[in-house]
Design a protein that fits this description.
alpha/beta, Aspartate Aminotransferase, domain 2, Aspartate Aminotransferase, domain 1, 2 domains, 7-stranded mixed β-sheet, 4-stranded antiparallel β-sheet, 12 helices, globular
C-alpha cells in the first residue's frame, strides 16, 4: 500500500510525541542541564524547579495525596518493583488478577520464593476479573492486591473502585498498575480508592522513555532498594526518611521529567475525555471492520471498547508472520506475540503464540484503521 508508515503500537510506547515534549527535552538539555537540587547556582535551581513543577502536575493529574508522595522512577516496571519489593514481606498474602503483565508477575513470583503467598483471581468470558472469585480470595486473607487497570492484551478496564472496596474491607492495600490507563482514561486516586499507583511516562502520558511515576498514599512505608545522593541531609550516611527523597537516590532524569511535564500539560489542554473517546472510537471502528474478515478472532470488548487496544488472530496464519507481512508489505506496525503478558494469554487461551495487537494513540486517525482492515482482509485471502 502507498503512504507513510502507520504506527499502531502505542500500548508499547506512544509515537509521535506532541511537539512541546520534543521542545521541552531539547530545551532542558541545552539550557538547564545542571544537576537538580545539588548546587546553589541558578542552573541547578532552575532544574529543581522543573522537577518541582512536574511533581505538582502529576499530583494534580492523579489527585494524589500531595506532590511529596510523587516519586520519579525509571519506568513503570521500576515503580512496581520499588513498591512490591519495598513493602511485601515473607508471610504476606497477595491477590492479583488473571491478566497481569510480567512487570507484576515476575516480582511476585520472586517474592513467592521468599515466602510470600500469591493468589490469582480467575477471569470471565468478557475479559474481566471474576469479582466473586476475587472477593473469595480476599476473604481468605489479604495484605496487598496488585491489579492492572487496563490489560495490555485486551484493552479492557478493571472495576477499580469495586476492587478497592473489597480489598479495603479486608484491611489490604491496593497497588494499581496504570501502565495502559495513565493519560488514556481518567485515574483519580482518592475517588477510586487507589493506595499506590505505578505508571510509565512514555505511554499514555506522552513523555519520553526513561521516566516513570510511583505515587504513594499516606503512611505507606516503602523501604528503598536504591540509595545514594539526594541533595538533602548530606551530612548523614543513611537514606533520608522523607518522601520523595527516600526513594529517589541518585541524579534524576531531568530531560525525561521535563518531557513528561510537557506531555501532561498537552493532555490537560486537549482534555483526557477527548483523548479517551478518540482512541476508543478508533478501536470500535477496527473491531467492526475486522468482524467482516473471515478467520479473524477478536480478544477485546467486541461492542464498546474503552481504550485503543485491539488484539486479534488469523486462523490460518502465525501471528509473527502476519506481523512481519504487515510491516514489510503494508507499512503498518503492530505488536505480535505475548506482549510480555503470558498470564493474560494463558487466561485467554492464546498461549504460547499470542496475538496481533493494534493499539491506537491520539495521533492516529480513521485512515489508519482503514489501512489495517484492508491489509488484514488481503492477508486472510492468502491463507
Amino acid at each position: 500500500m502507498d503512504g507513510p508508515f502507520v504506527y499502531l503500537d502505542n500500548a508499547a510506547t506512544t509515537w509521535p510525541k506532541p511537539e512541546p515534549v520534543y521542545k521541552a527535552v531539547d530545551e532542558t538539555m541545552r539550557e538547564f542541564g545542571a544537576n537538580p537540587g545539588r548546587s546553589s547556582h541558578h542552573m541547578s535551581q532552575q532544574a529543581e524547579r522543573i522537577i518541582a513543577d512536574a511533581r505538582h502536575a502529576v499530583a494534580r493529574f492523579f489527585n494524589a495525596p500531595s506532590p511529596e508522595h510523587v516519586v520519579f522512577t525509571l519506568n513503570c516496571t521500576d515503580s512496581l518493583n520499588i513498591a512490591l519489593k519495598g513493602l511485601i514481606k515473607p508471610g504476606d498474602r497477595v491477590v492479583t488478577g488473571p491478566y497481569e503483565h510480567n512487570s507484576v508477575m515476575r516480582p511476585l513470583r520472586s517474592l513467592q520464593r521468599s515466602g510470600v503467598s500469591v493468589a490469582v483471581a480467575r477471569g470471565t468470558g468478557d475479559f474481566q476479573i471474576d469479582l466473586d472469585h476475587f472477593r473469595e480470595l480476599c476473604h481468605a486473607g489479604i495484605d496487598f492486591a496488585v491489579i492492572s487497570h487496563a490489560s495490555n492484551v485486551t484493552g479492557c478496564l478493571s472495576s477499580v473502585r469495586e476492587i478497592a472496596g473489597i480489598v479495603h474491607e479486608q484491611g489490604g492495600i491496593l497497588i494499581l498498575d496504570a501502565a495502559q490507563s495513565a493519560g488514556v482514561v481518567e485515574v483519580d486516586m482518592d475517588r477510586m480508592g487507589i493506595d499506590i499507583l505505578a505508571a510509565p511516562g512514555h505511554k499514555g502520558l506522552l513523555g519520553p522513555m526513561g521516566v516513570g511515576i510511583l505515587i504513594l498514599g499516606r503512611d505507606i512505608p516503602v523501604d528503598p532498594f536504591r540509595e545514594g545522593g539526594t541533595g538533602i541531609k548530606s551530612e548523614g550516611d543513611y537514606q533520608p526518611e522523607e518522601l520523595p527523597w527516600r526513594l529517589e537516590g541518585g541524579t534524576a532524569n531531568l530531560p525525561g521529567i521535563a518531557g513528561l511535564l510537557a506531555g501532561i500539560r498537552f493532555i490537560e489542554s486537549v482534555g483526557i475525555g477527548s483523548i479517551a473517546s478518540h482512541e476508543a472510537e478508533l478501536a470500535r471502528q477496527l473491531v467492526e471492520g475486522l468482524k467482516g474478515v473471515d478467520g479473524v478472532r477478536l480478544f477485546c470488548d467486541p461492542v464498546d471498547p474503552k481504550t485503543g487496544v485491539v488484539s486479534f488472530t488469523l486462523d490460518a496464519m502465525d501471528v509473527a508472520l502476519a506481523g512481519t507481512i504487515l510491516d514489510q508489505a503494508f507499512k503498518i506496525g503492530v505488536r505480535t506475540g505475548l506482549h510480555c503478558a503470558p498470564a493474560a494469554h494463558k487466561a485467554l487461551g492464546t498461549f504460547p503464540s499470542g496475538t496481533l495487537r493494534a493499539s491506537f494513540g491520539y495521533f492516529n486517525d480513521e485512515s489508519h484503521v482503514e489501512r489495517l482492515v484492508a491489509a488484514v482482509r488481503q492477508l486472510s485471502k492468502t491463507c
